[in-house]
Amino acid sequence: MDSNGQLCWEPTSIRNIASSYYEKLLTAEPLSEQVRDCRSHIWAEVKNMVSNQMNCMLDAPFSEKELNEALYSLPRNKCPGEDGLSVFFFQKYWDIIGDRFLDVCNEIFESGSMPTPIAAGLIYMIPKGETQSPDVTKWRPITLLNTIYKIYAKVLSMRL
Predict the structure, then answer these.
(1) Alpha carbon of 21 to those of 16, 132, 139, 140: distances in Å?
(2) Which of 122, 105, 113, 9 is nearest to 61 (CA)?
(3) How far apart are CA 22 and CA 140, in angstroms?
(4) Where would you tag: which of 40, 79, 133, 160 has the fewest CB atoms within 10 A of its CB?
(5) Going along the chain, which residue ranges are E strands?
(6) What's the pTM value of the predicted model, to 2 decimals?
(7) d(CA 142, CA 34)
């Protein structure tokens, strides 16, 4: 529904209403000077906790073992992203694609840039309750990410 309570059927209007709603919902108010000062004081007390050895490990290229552990720790039957490839697909054909996948992950890690098709996600609106209300507040967005992205993110999180 638009701001006047009228139902909208045009995709562009629906997209604009949803975007406006979630932008307002998820945008934080600017921090007060008192909160900024408090944060600065707290961060000033935090000491460097990453040793040179830890830093070398974090900066090292991915290993085959790390990718295997990440891949086999993910749930097999979750919805895939835009590429349509599930975790099960990667597990089933890992002996064929694993080496090339390792090369791609290390290329992304070294360059610091992930190609858009890998990083892209599909956002779907799922109804919160039993009935499908036209009210955008009664829906929740979920993002379906590509499995390559999920595996890459899992390796990074396991390292941390």
Answers:
(1) 9, 17, 11, 11
(2) 105
(3) 10
(4) 160
(5) 121-127, 139-145
(6) 0.75
(7) 35
Shortest CA distance to 118 belongs to which of 96, 141, 150? 150
Q: Scan for tokens 């909208």, then name that residue.
A: 8
The single-letter code of the amino acid at 146 is: N
Q: Is the dihedral of CA 78, 80, 85, 87 positive or negative?
A: negative
Q: Which residue has the higher pLDDT, 109 or 1?
A: 109
- Amino acid (1-letter code) at residue 101: F
The size of the chain, in residues, is 160
Q: Which residues contact 154 (CB under 8 A, 6 or more apart)?
A: 70, 71, 73, 74
Other CB atoms within a 10 A radius of the CB of residue 12 amount to 8
Q: Residue 72's closest CA among 88, 85, 58, 83?
A: 88
- Widest distance between CA atoms in the chain: 61
Kindly report, residue by residue over 105-141, the tens digit of the pLDDT: 999 999 999 999 999 998 888 888 777 777 888 888 8
Nearest to 156 by CA among 100, 108, 86, 99: 108
Beta-carbon contacts of 17 under 8 Å, excluding residues fewer than 6 positions away, are 1, 2, 8, 136
**pLDDT for residue 17 is more than 90:** no
